[in-house]
Design goal:
InterPro entries: CoA-bd, NAD(P)-bd_dom_sf
Distance between the termini: 23 Å
Mean pLDDT: 97
Pfam families: CoA_binding_2
Organism: Paracoccus alcaliphilus
Radius of gyration: 14 Å
Protein name: CoA-binding domain-containing protein
Order of helices and strands: HEHEEEEHEHEH
Length: about 140
């Protein structure tokens, strides 16, 4: 099967099944792309949990900000981690996610962000990995 078709099937499944997303690198600055993506996802019924050490304990879009993924309570049920950070930060973020988020199903990296080693590690743990894509662009095709 064509890799693009398989990825589209994954994206469609994610758009319909994921409800809680931890967004690493979400900023309170409304001009930043991450803020617009988080706001869109919230408007579609997703819960977006902000992860940004510089704003930990504050609130972004009505949700408490956590310093890192390990600080998010297990009860939050994070199913997807959306990464708005540089590619070199992805392996550590994926390691944190695998170690601390038991409901995790998806690792998603934003446009221009990739880490093949982190993707392989996540896939080896049974996760779906989408790289170099934006859910604000991809989800509307399936919702």
């Amino acid at each position: 099967m064509d890799a693009a078709v398989t990825e589209d099937e994954d994206i469609e499944r994610i758009a319909h099944t994921v409800r809680t997303i931890a967004m690493v690198g979400l900023s309170p600055n409304e001009a930043r792309p991450a803020w617009g993506v988080a706001r869109y996802l919230q408007s579609q019924g997703y819960r977006v949990i902000p992860v940004n050490p510089g704003h930990a304990g504050k609130s972004i879009l009505g949700e408490v900000v956590y310093a890192d993924l390990t600080q998010i309570p297990t009860e939050a049920g994070v199913q997807m981690v959306d990464i708005f950070r540089r590619s070199e930060a992805v392996p550590q973020i994926v390691d944190e996610a695998l170690a601390s988020l038991p409901a995790l199903k998806v690792i998603w990296t934003q446009l221009g962000v990739t880490s093949e080693s982190a993707a392989q590690k996540a896939r080896a743990q049974g996760l779906t990995v989408i790289q170099d894509r934006c859910p604000k662009i991809e989800f509307p095709r399936f919702l």
